[in-house]
Automatic annotation (TrEMBL):
It holds the Pfam family Cupin_6. This is AraC family transcriptional regulator. Residues 211-309 form the HTH araC/xylS-type domain. One of its GO terms (molecular function) is DNA-binding transcription factor activity. Keywords: DNA-binding, Transcription, Transcription regulation. The keyword Protein transport does not apply. It comes from the Bacteria. InterPro entries: AraC_lig, AraC_XylS_family_regulators, Homeodomain-like_sf, HTH_AraC, HTH_AraC-typ_CS.
Length: 312
């Protein structure tokens, strides 16, 4: 895991705020058709087993200890058996309905952050979703595939997250958000370690020149970096840096700079009350308008709308 220790640019991304968490408790037969569109959803199998079903893929059996990472608008089925017909649909915003369109959110609620057809069901899972891409981190989002299965994920804090999800105490959402971030990082590390050839964005420290270029960009985001300036600073030619940066990080240096600036802007909008003009200057945009344009293109909402959403 040494190659991951020096890559906070990717694994330092998750900053959950008001994440969705739910313990799902099911007794066979059951089948869920899922079209939820969160930037990232994590499904941890806690007991029993289930089957992951996707179009053009053979069914995959999931057992206790497995964790499923689903990015964006991927469509999939979870069921007790590979042939069980879905009778429950989970849509955007965790909307839950039967095949007849009936809302099942309250009907199948079984306790604090618990839902399912049987409170003592044989098959149990923990579902957690990040509500905004900016909370996940654009670098991590770019590194993950549409669906990743991590077999036997080794996260010591997962049982703590499950236990805390069943509590309803003062500041509980903040507690869950912080634990979720650590659990997700642990699961992503396990996934990356088991991926042949490694993962773009998670191998930075393996190339000293690229690692130094990343450090310079992160430490001076407002500077108008060019590939030529970065190459001179790290002691390699422009072409060598461009080629190696693309291979290791998964994008060109200037694209990484733009991504890092927007990630910092999201943090500042979320965690401070600074004006948009101040944030723009801090992260290297010439005007609030140019930041707003880039931010909306990357995250789908304006900086003002994003700040309003995460402050709600």
């Amino acid at each position: 895991m040494a190659e991951l220790a020096g890559t906070p640019d990717v694994l330092d991304g998750p900053r959950a705020r008001g994440a969705f968490l739910l313990r799902v408790l099911m007794e066979p037969p059951w089948a869920l058709e899922i079209t939820e569109e969160s930037p990232l959803t994590m499904v941890a199998v806690l007991s029993g087993d289930s089957w992951l079903r996707r179009t053009d893929h053979p069914p995959q059996r999931l057992v206790a200890g497995d964790v499923l990472l689903v990015r964006g608008a991927a469509r999939y089925l979870l069921s007790d058996e590979p042939t069980t017909v879905p009778d429950i649909r989970i849509g955007p915003g965790q909307a839950c309905s039967g095949t007849d369109g009936r809302d099942l959110s309250d009907e199948l609620a079984t306790g604090v952050r618990a839902w399912g057809n049987d409170a003592s069901g044989h098959d149990t899972m923990l579902v957690a979703s990040y509500p905004a891409q900016a909370q996940l981190g654009t670098a991590l989002a770019a590194a993950l595939p549409e669906i990743a299965l991590v077999s036997g994920a080794d996260s010591p804090l997962l049982p703590v997250l499950v236990a805390e999800a069943a509590r309803d105490a003062l500041g509980q959402e903040a507690v869950l958000d912080r634990i979720l971030d650590v659990v997700l990082i642990s699961v992503v590390r396990d996934w990356a370690a088991g991926t042949p050839g490694g993962v773009a964005g998670l191998r930075v420290v393996a190339d000293p020149a690229v690692a130094e270029a990343v450090r310079l960009i992160r430490s001076q985001p407002a500077r108008a970096w060019t590939v030529d300036e970065l190459a001179v600073s790290v002691g390699v030619s422009r072409s060598v840096l461009a080629r190696r940066f693309q291979a290791v990080v998964g994008m060109p240096p200037i694209a990484y700079l733009a991504q890092w600036r927007l990630s910092l802007a999201a943090d500042l909008l979320r965690d401070t009350d600074r004006t948009l003009a101040s944030v723009s200057r801090e992260v290297g945009y010439g005007s609030p308008f140019s930041l707003s344009t880039a931010f909306k293109k990357a995250y789908g909402v304006s900086p003002a709308a994003y700040r309003s959403e995460v402050s709600a």
